Amino acid sequence: MVADQPFAEPVPGVAKSDPVLVVDGVTRTFGGLVAVDVGHLEIQRHTVTSLIGPNGAGKTTLFNVLSGFDNANAGEWHLNGGSLVGIPAHSVARRGMVRTFQLTRSLARLTVMENLLVADQHNPGERLRGALLGGWGAAEADAKERAAALLDRFGLSTMVDEYAGSLSGGQRKLLEVARALMVGPEVIMLDEPMAGVNPALTQSLLTHIQTLRDDGMTVIFIEHDMDVVQEISDWVVVLAQGAVIAEGPPSSIARNRVVIDAYLGEHHGDAAP
Amino acid sequence: MLLVTSVWPSSATYNRSTVPSFARRLIIFGLLVAALLSFASPVMAEGEAIKGTLIVRLDDVRSPVEGVTMIVSQDGTEIGSGTSDAEGHWLIPVPGPGIYQVRLDISTLPEGVTLTDPDKVELPEVEVTEGQEKTVLFPLGEGAVSTVSTFERVGTLFVAGLKLGAVIALSAVGLSLIFAVTGLVNFAHGEMVTLGAVLAYFFSTSPAGPGWPLVVAAVPAILLGAGFGWVQDRGLWRSLRKQGMGLISMMVVSIGLAFAMRHVILVVFSGQRRLFSDYTGQSPVTILGIPMVPKHLVTIAVAVVVLGAIGLFLQRTKAGTAVRAVSDDPDLAESSGINVDRVITVTWVMAGGLAALGGIFFGVNEAVQWDMGFRLLLLIFAAVVLGGLGTAYGAMVGGFVVGVTVEMSTMFVPSELKSAIGLLLLIVMLLVRPQGLLGSRERIG
Amino acid sequence: MDLVAILRDGFLAMIGPVTAAYAIAAISLNLQFGYTGLLNFGQVAFLAAGAYGTSITVEAGGSLWLGIAIGIMLAVLLGAMLGLPTLRLRADYLAITTIAVAEVIRLVVRSSWAEPVTNGVFGIQGFANAFFDLNPFPPGETYGIGSWLVTGRRLWVMIVSWVVVLLLLLLVRRLINSPWGRVVKAVREDEDATRALGKNVFNYKLQSLMIGGAIGAIAGILLAIEQQNVTPDAYLPNITFILYVIVILGGAGTIVGPLVGALVFQFLFFTFDAFMASSQAEIGWLNTLISPAEAGQIKLILVGAGLMALMVFRPQGILGDPDEVTLDGR
């Protein structure tokens, strides 16, 4: 485990040795309600960083803002040093930061294979001119090969020609992660990937997530289950009322008084490790 | 063309990739088309027309009246206009057989000449048959000199705008509330407006009906309108919600419903423009130097009271609070013990009653016609988008703003382009502030 | 009652140029609504743009062919105008704007203010002579078997129209089966998910609306040429909703659905007409019960009711895959 050699002190807002994503003073309010108010946060490259916090802590809102699906009221954030403020969602994805959604968004009336192919970024046939003139066959064949490998890895290779809408809930979760990978991201943001997934699948998803890190990706994920968080995270960021109240390796978080008061106190029984 | 060029600059900032090249091509297309339009010439067809001769008797001397503008319209759209010549003759061609309205523009009458019957400034039903040049009569006589001051004109238009705004606001609140609690834009809302007017016509004026005074007839019309809201929700929308139909499909269903209802009303009511027997031909009273027709004032007053009551209902009552809770977040409302289905039904009933009321006032102030609701729907949409789709107060404010803007605009643009002004408001609002005056940004997501 | 004559009238109407034009307009709507999920409730405006662009150009001294090009460009422009303010917003804003714009365009074109250009309610006639000059069939002659006849003029329009239908079907098939078509379908399924995969959803929607607009203009131009007449009241909102019935009847989101829908719809529509006309000629009391005008109105009630019934009971239409529809509550 990487967590055995911490790359930073467990203090909120601490600087990391090699941050891929840096968030500065990002706030988002709805009416009078402050949903997100993050002073400073850095995400270390090549780690699994989990984002935890009680319901309404602003985890998903922060995801939405960072990925361009929502606008911040103030603040800035950089991916590999490049500012993402005001960058539309699709461009954020193209720059290498791809997200999934809490409620699975399968493209129901596309087949499993098509779901993956849509995520390819290099197909000239996706432009109107290319579609009309043709000549995208090679890129398509290439993408299909990559897609088939991904589907194989996620155990969906028997479902290639099924409509995504006919998959089970767990399979859709896997499909969504596979699809996000097809974009070729550097940072992947998973919003509660384990929610509503049966235990067997959870285990396989966990393995997949760790593999992503080992493949050189940075994983940021929102999770409720503390067991899961303890098991696979290299670093844990705790959000409460929109602000980062603690961060550190999983072991330090479990002992953190502030966290126990703010978060575990609320969920007692089911959340304590 | 103007609109396009004004739209582009803002879009260029939105789209960094492919649009600018699109834009360049489009502007070239636009210029090409504009150039062609500018030297196009009209073609005149021969056939049906409406004509007449304007003669005035002054001290027993008959003399022709020259330079008077006559306007022919059909269902509220102007078809043509003409001016009387030195012999007082005028002729306006019309596209084919049918019913037309002919109006004399009083402001173009020479000093000292006026209509002998001021109510006959417009002939509401001039029927032209195949190949006919129909002659119509406007009896003129000696009259007091009446010049309209700018102040009077502005004042009159403003009151007319408030009146139209009242009708729009009454009708729009229901549409907006239904959207707020269900997410559905109901394209059959215009037909709910028409239904109210037609029912009131039946109870008050129709020879087949009981012939009640309009004030009495309005009661069953509104109740039936509200009842129709209930039937629609319970009979149609609720089951579609339960079967999980998506909003896009529901909107298509609503447009099918609108289409079917509109033509049912057409078959039953016929295509004629009809007036209520009450409150026609009211003469204006002058208040603060501005002539106002009493029914307009009543329309405005009733609308303000009813809309105020809706506001109180939403703010002060338990049911109103539930409506607001459901429109904020249906899931949260459901989990906090609110019966969402019942709230939705209440909203539909309210919307049905309000639309009927709006329709009755629309009928009183103009005329009852099978497609009146569809025509009003465009202004209703402008109002709800202006105020903020899904906000009740936005629909009220939007209704009055659209009504006043549209009427006042006739000072600068031909009155037949009124609806275009309403649309312009809608589009400008979408570009500038799509969430509307009173909406919050999250809603448009 | 002569059933054969009724069916013949229905059949001849079904294979006529108007059906072809409706099929084209439906192909356009299918691209926008069936494949991209755009709720365009003002399709008739694209038809009007094509027809007016063409006829005004010819009136102004341009050639018919230049007119056709300008008509199509005008519709593409209209697509851009409709799309720019609305396509970033939820689907209902496009629906509201299109239904309003379509009706306002009709009112403006009809107004005396626009009369110098559009000739107001009288419209523009006789602008398509250049098209009929190319007719290889003597226009007075009739072609066919027995009483199943069409005139040479009609045959010429029919052949051209159906060839255009075929070409456009091939075009749409090429687009839809390309990666571009895949993205467009993804947009229909879930905009946010597609955005998260790095696609500029707004651009795809705008492109679909504009290409659909161009195809819609072609339908309007063919209708106008066939009738040699463009009047504002030929562009009532009714046409848009008939097109929805056609698209959903045939199967929204299928390539040939619009064609099948148009054929079936037109056959039913005109057989109903022929049936009513023939029964009214034979049965006197039917006339007093339902006048011919009312029969036409009743037909439109059925169109509206049919649209609702299709959406509720058979949203996949004739050709759609029933499994596909039940996948997601759409």
How would you describe this structure in keywords?
heterotrimer; B: 445 residues; alpha+beta; Immunoglobulin-like; ABC transporter involved in vitamin B12 uptake, BtuC; four-stranded antiparallel β-sheet; elongated; disordered N terminus; C: 330 residues; mainly alpha; 16 helices; 4 strands; 4% strand
Give me the CATH superfamily of the largest domain in chain A: P-loop containing nucleotide triphosphate hydrolases
Regarding quaternary structure, what we see is heterotrimer
For the largest beta-sheet of chain A, the strand count, sense and barrel status come to: 6 strands, mixed
Question: Which chains share the greatest interface?
Answer: B-C, 82 and 79 residues
Structural class of chain B: alpha+beta
| Fraction of residues in H or I helices of chain B | 55-70%
- How would you sum up the major sheet of chain B? 4 strands, antiparallel
- Our measurement of the CA-to-CA distance between the termini of chain B, rounded to an integer number of angstroms, reads 30 Å
Question: Tell me, what's the shape of chain A?
Answer: globular
Instruction: Report the mean per-residue pLDDT of chain A as an integer.
Output: 87
Strand segment tally of chain A: 10
The CATH architecture of the largest domain in chain A comes to: 3-Layer(aba) Sandwich
Number of domains of chain B: 2
- Number of discrete helical segments of chain A: 10
User: Main sheet of chain A: which strands, in order across?
Assistant: 6-7-8-3-9-10
Uncertain residue segments of chain A: 267-273
Instruction: Count up the helices of chain B.
Output: 13
CATH class designation of the largest domain in chain A: Alpha Beta
Classify the secondary structure makeup of chain A into a structural class: alpha/beta
Question: What is the share of helical residues of chain A?
Answer: 25-40%
- What is the succession of H and E elements of chain A? EEEHEEHEHHHHEHEHEEHH
